[in-house]
Amino acid sequence: MINGIFLDPRIWKIDYLTNPFWKPNLFGINIDVHLDAFNIPKIGIDPKYKFAIVTELWEIPMRKTLSYLRKKGIKIFLVPREISKTKAHQGIMFFEEKFNYNGEYFFTPDYIFAPGQQYSSVWDGKEIPKKIIGYPRYEVYLKPELLRTKAEARKRHGIDQNKKIIFFPSYPAIYIQTVNNKNIYTFLDKDLENTMYQLEQYAINNQKEVQVIVKLHPYSQKCYDKKTGSGKEVFGLLKKYYESPSSYLKVIGDSRLDSTISRDMIISTDFVVGSISMMMLEAALTNKPMFNIRLEQECKLNDMISYENNMITAYKPDDIIINLNNMILHPDKYKVDTSFVNHYLYKVDGKFCERLCNEIKLLI
After folding, report:
1. Fewer Cβ atoms within 10 Å of its own Cβ: the N or the C terminal residue of the chain?
2. pTM of the full structure
3. What is the DSSP letter of 148?
């Protein structure tokens, strides 16, 4: 049995322990989660460990830990949670000044296990060995009997049991790019507020049959709770219906420590509309009728992730209500070919654990 440690307790809890296929012991690998990674250089590490799995390489305290582990002969494997890094993220990853430590901006791992081609490509040219193996987050959908029923999920979040549910996963209305080692902030506030307005009008006019459910992004929730951020995380109609939900439109909070909230939203809903959210991939995997929204501000950012080539897309605010009406009437026309998901997730087949373990055995 080869022993390793996992250095991110939050991701371990929400993405790995919730995966029914996560059983590395079946493949000759034992992985223990470490609850205090930043203090490893002080408290030491058991010599039985031969590798460490890390989800990020940028925070300076983590890099100190990884340097310590490497000196102990422990191999460092990056298994990132992000599946959609873009050119803007690439700037932050490799040139963000706050990550400058001893003249370097990130820790160089021994190997990268990427979730899909989209993320893998941002490491092109870095001369770090890598392989695409998928990611465990979505494999739970292969075991629907382990999930809440639609009625249970709706009851948990106070969603109407009798109406058609339209779900919108919201996003922080700010986009950060790093250009010439400086952060450039681009706001998407008009796009988000226009989307919320169209959803509100549709919900009001169809409230006997329809309820619109919006979920806060975990980062937005954090900013709201701690009163931090730019002020463009929870504002306008998003804030209004979060603080005062109605029978026709309700904004639901989120938690960085509870991945079941997102899954409950997918289970509860009949239709999905969205923009840059990764939850659009979950909606596609579960065969939900859906369409993409890409309004004026987002269209000006050419390096943002977009699903416009994979599904029907609304480019103007008025297009949102037109497509909502059409989707309700003709849901099958709004179901998408899920093959595009492979670009981000390689395969959602229940074999992520097996692939990861087999690769580790080749490297240790």
Report:
1. N
2. 0.91
3. P
**What does the H/E/C string look like for 207-272?**
CCCEEEEEECCHHHHHHHHHCCCCCCCCCHHHHHHHHCCCCCEEEECCCCCCCHHHHHHHHHCCEE
Planar angle of CA 272, 193, 191, nearest 5 degrees: 80
CA 236 from centre of chain: 24
- pLDDT, tens digit, 9 for 90 and up, residues 58-101: 889 999 999 999 999 999 999 998 877 666 566 667 777 778 88
Residue 91: its pLDDT value, please? 66
> How many CA atoms lie less than 13 Å away from 231 in the CB half-sphere?
0
More confident residue, 172 or 206: 206
Q: Which helix (H) or strand (E) holds 202?
A: helix 189-205
3-state secondary structure 2-61: EEEEECCHHHHHHHHCCCCCCCHHHHCEEEEECCCHHHHHHHCCCCCEEEEEECCCCCHH
Quote the CA–CA distance of 234 and 250 in Å, as a whole number.
Answer: 14
251 DSSP β-pair partners: 214
**C-alpha span between 10 and 170 (Å, rounded):** 22
Q: Are 27 and 53 in contact (CB under 8 A)?
A: no
Please give the structure tokens belonging to residue 156. 């948990």
| Residues 194-237: tens digit of each pLDDT | 999 999 999 999 999 999 999 999 989 999 999 988 888 899 99
Q: Position 353: which residue type?
A: C
Q: Tell me which H or E stretch contains 308.
A: none
